[in-house]
Prior knowledge:
It contains nine helices and eight strands. Strand 4, helix 4 and strand 5 (about 90-95) form a beta-alpha-beta unit. The radius of gyration is 18 Å and the shape is globular. It has helices at about 20-30, 40-45, 55-65, 80, 100-105, 130-135, 145-150, 150-160, 175-180; strands at about 5-10, 15-20, 55, 70-75, 90-95, 110-115, 140-145, 165. The chain is an alpha/beta fold.
Amino acid sequence: FKLFELDIIKTIDDQFVACHNWEKWKKETGYTGEIPVDRKTFLSHRKKGAPTLMDMEMINEWFAKHPDAILVTDKVNDPEAFVPQFVDRKRLMMELFSFEAVEKAQALGIKDVILSENMISYLREEDRVGELKERKINYLAISRRTIDKHRHIYKELNEAGIKIFAFHVNFDDLRDEAYMFR
């Protein structure tokens, strides 16, 4: 494995941490206070058997020890704040949720951007491939459920060299990695 995807959100004291969302964190840890929390509180509420809680220091330490690993972010849409905090922008791919964020990330010299599925509708339907190529976007993050519904669109994009990262794999019966491969 070379690509490692982490959901990145901010604490109340403006620190980036690896966490899907505050509601899920609160439920999983049994935390009863207000959310979001500060970094110290976040790191001190790990539930036994749960994944390791990580802040930027820990994320950077892990990636520094694994120089062939690439971080793929989800949730964070602020490249100007996040990129300078990561150990190696040439090993950073960010799923982004606006064309403005895409342009900022590209200007900051990250490895690549991944355009979020919600932005597909803003592309010119008659020239999706051309517009993505013009914007230097080589990757999309798409729900497996959307791929099933609009297979012709994603086949066209894939044939044009635009790679698709699928999520919602293993969420529905019989829709696992083998299904995606077929």
